Amino acid sequence: MALPNEQLQLLKFFVQACKANPAILHTPELDFYRDYLSSLGANLPPAPAAEEPNTEEPEAKKEEPKPTEKEAPPPAAESSSEEDAESDLELNLDFVTGPESDALPTLPSAEGEVSEENMDAANDKRGEAMRLMSDGDLEAAVAALTEAIQLNPTMAALYAKRAQIYIRMKRPAAAVQDCDRALELNTNSALAYKQRGRAYRLLGKIDQAYKDLGKGQGIDYDDDTDELQKSLKDDVHKVQEHNNKRAHKEKERELKRRKKEAARRKAAAQKAYEEQQRENAAGGMPGGFPGGFPGGFPGGMGGMPGGFPGAGGMGGGMPGMGGMGGMGGGMPSGLGDILNDPELLAAFQDPEVSKAFMEISQNPAAAEKYKNDPKMMKVLEKLKSKFGGADAEAPGADTATGEAPGAGGASAGGAPTGPAYSSNDLD
What we know:
Helix 6 packs antiparallel against helix 7 and helix 10 (190-202) packs antiparallel against helix 11. It is rod-shaped and about 120 Å long. By secondary structure, the chain is mostly helical. It starts with a helix and ends with a helix. The protein has helices spanning 5-20, 31-39, 52-63, 65-71, 73-86, 116-134, 138-151, 156-168, 172-185, 190-202, 206-219, 223-283, 333-339, 342-347, 351-362, 374-386, 423-426. It has 17 helices and no strands.
């Protein structure tokens, strides 16, 4: 069974490439062909020694993470320095109470109407609580105010008064809860703000205590609260400076984290790029032709004029090319340029370019319909330049006609030679 002329030319091209560089046979893509030759008893050339550096590169890569491992200790030192910076806050917090042992009281719902009878009864209980507080019976005073709140849960002053007693009992958390309810019912309750400020102080929340005391003073000033607020002023400034420093440190940490992440991503991208480059170099034909010609030379180029022995001419070459010269028994420099030109290799991966080039290689006259196709014209002009340009004399060509011997103005398949175009026509 005879092979089609185009496949025969492609096979001859491959054999010539193997002769020029036997190391091609040791590429992974040709394992099947190498096994076939071995089964026939063929004497294959040894694998190239150039593979040894590839085995060393992974070792070099293994050493790259070492600098990052050495950089691991600095963050720990940095965190310790940040802890020192955050622990330099010195406040006199002897007045801060410990955690409360008693559960917080349950607050009744403040919705609904309260009868006048309940209002009067709540006021009586409030008076009773004030007398008990004056007598120093704080537990009984809290119980009386709790009854008053049950009778009239909409009265903000009852919650604020009970909070005042909770503070004397060193129960700041319960006092804060009562003050929050009082301020929900009356946003202008000076007593609620002042008592919540005192409760925050006992909880060690100096800045919040200072703010609440100031709000209460703005509604109803008194000397005792003013003295308490002044005593907190220095500590409040210390807390504010400390918080500002901590916020600054946090921003610095976040910035460093982002920079570190960006560097990691950049290194990962660089590593992936280098690995891809090595794979391309290992998987392609050494000396050019990485990974093989995409899809083969489309259509086998219809035979290169005067090229491989017995190959038919290209019928005067592509329009305007004046015929490609013979290969002279070896791989021509023009073809080598093609195999090493990444722009051409990428172009032949385009299905449209590959299909058009196959059509032109089978029928050079078909190039006329691609005159207005900038993508195809760019490829044709590039090919012409690789083979010496449109006006260059092809090796072995007839000096009078500029055609390869035996081209005769027609392709091997008998297709008529298309009209000659100059480079200006193609533009």
